[in-house]
Specification:
155 residues; alpha+beta; four-stranded antiparallel β-sheet; 1 helix; 35% helix
């Protein structure tokens, strides 16, 4: 009479280890896809916030501008200047610093208008301006604003 043996055989152990490896690889792949999706979504949200902050200030200032500016504000460094109002005139300068902050300087007082901006390109025809804002987030698309400094239209 044989004694009953306890435990698993070598074949049973190898089969269970193979099944565990397959399940682990499937879960790892799922987590990797989720991580990449979240990372991409975070970049998109950061770019949207940057453009939103920049567009608020730019629209407000350009709607009031005496003469619409042209040029590019980026970290080369370059800046775009214009003014609005009747005396006392408000002088506004937009520039982008090395940290990708859109800096808005009003009458010598600098403040950050938006973070995460690579460049802002201004072009104007008559009383209509086109502003192209390029966020610094990887893969972010540029956003174009069309602004008029005469809300009722050119006259």
């Amino acid at each position: 009479m044989r004694r009953r043996q306890r435990g698993f055989t070598l074949v049973e152990g190898m089969v269970s280890l193979a099944i565990l490896a397959i399940i682990t690889l499937a879960m790892g792949g799922t987590f990797l896809v989720a991580y990449r999706t979240i990372s991409t979504e975070a970049r998109v949200i950061a770019a949207d916030e940057a453009v939103s902050g920049a567009s608020l200030w730019l629209t407000r200032d350009l709607n009031s501008a005496n003469v619409l500016p042209t040029g590019t504000a980026d970290a080369t460094p370059s800046s775009v200047s214009f003014s609005y109002g009747s005396p006392p005139v408000v002088s506004v300068v937009y520039s982008v610093n090395a940290n990708h902050d859109l800096v808005r300087t009003v009458n010598g007082q600098a403040g950050t208008a938006a973070r995460g901006i690579s460049s802002v390109n201004f072009s104007a025809v008559g009383c209509y301006a086109t502003v192209v804002i390029q966020p610094s987030a990887t893969g972010a698309a540029a956003v174009t604003l069309n602004v008029s400094n005469r809300p009722a239209g050119c006259f």
